[in-house]
Amino acid sequence: MLKWLIGFDIGGTKCAAILGKVEDGNFFIVQKTVFATKEYPAPADCIEKFSAEIKKILELHPEAAPEAIGISCGGPLDSKKGIIMSPPNLPGWDDVHICKILEAKFHLPVKLCNDADACALAEWKFGAGKGAENMAFLTFGTGLGAGLILNGRLYSGSCGMAGECGHIRLDDSGPTGYGKTGSFEGFCSGGGIAQLGKLYAEKNLPLPWCRTVGDLPSVTAKSIADAANAGDPVAIAVYEESGRRLGYGLSILIDLLNLEKIVIGSVFQRSENLLRPAMEEIIRKEALPQSREICKILPAELGENIGDIAALSVALL
CA–CA separation, 179 vs 149, rounded Å? Predict the structure, then answer.
């Protein structure tokens, strides 16, 4: 069976308008347009840009007959009512009734999903989570959120806020994430690792990846990972610290939800070698043995296409 679908992936840095199709159980991204979010900061302008790009794409593919539109966006949002509600990475996106707006423009059903939930759907059906009845997907990108598949269904909670594990406090001090010092997101996100790296760098200047105080603003999770992979002991220690905190956070999820798989994207996908040893050491100490032994922790499989397939998966599922 062939299904044509439209996806809209809304991120703090970039957005994508995607035309895709599902055929014989496989996803194909037919065409997409990417544009910088900051060029269209007002929600109305961004939605108009998305609509214009999709119309252009559909003109190039007259054979396409889209059946639905799926939107993937960082929370908080109300997925049931189709409303985006003030995500921290999207200033000005307050109470945006995006599903209603796009339904009126395209005369198609439109579904909105938290980006972690959308990625969980994508990895569950088409990636590393295939075959699992109970799994979690962790974003581990700009921020940290989880999408939960429980008993073979997406679990979004009473008001669509389930899976906000980045808000869990792991320590009274440390880097800040999700508005909370020492949070899971503070230790285990791209921004959190950068903060952690700056704290370590200040105490150990000069370093190959941060020679002076003036270099601190340019420290990123990637620059620290590059230095760690080149053998710098301070950079290695930063990732070991993040890995330990990841182990503590995952142990909570393993004990609480008794998961078969935890699939982790973005930073973990790229720097698994730096994070996994410390993560596994903590999980062995912290998690219940029966639950720990049946839970596989895996990098996301869908790679750079995950955001596109996530938005299309919302339309499909």
Answer: 26
> For position 109, what pLDDT does the model report?
97
- Rounded Cα gap, residues 225 and 243, in angstroms: 13
Output the CA torsion 173→177→179→181 (10° steps): 0
- pLDDT at site 26: 83
Q: Which portions of the chain are predicted below pLDDT 70?
A: none
Give the angle subtended at the CA of 102 by the CAs of 73 and 69, to the nearest 5°: 65
Q: In this structure, are residues 297 and 277 in contact, taking their beta carbons and an 8 Å threshold?
A: no
Q: Phi then psi for 311, rounded to 5 degrees?
A: -60, -40
C-alpha span between 119 and 122 (Å, rounded): 5
Per residue in 72-128, pLDDT (tens digit) is 998 888 988 999 998 877 999 999 999 999 999 999 999 999 999 999 999 999 999
Annotate 176-211 with three-state secondary structure. Answer: EECCEECEHHHHCCHHHHHHHHHHHHHHHCCECCEC
Q: Which of 263, 30, 63, 235 is nearest to 163 (CA)?
A: 263
Q: To which H or E segment does residue 32 belong?
A: strand 26-36
- Cα→Cα distances 176→112, 181, 294, Å: 28, 4, 32
* CB atoms inside a 10 Å sphere around CB 24: 6
pTM of the model: 0.89
250-264 CB burial, b ≥16 within 10 A, e <16: bbebbeebebbbbbb
In the block, tokens 């899976």 appear at: 163
Backbone φ/ψ region at 231: left (φ over 0), alpha (ψ -120 to 50), beta:
left
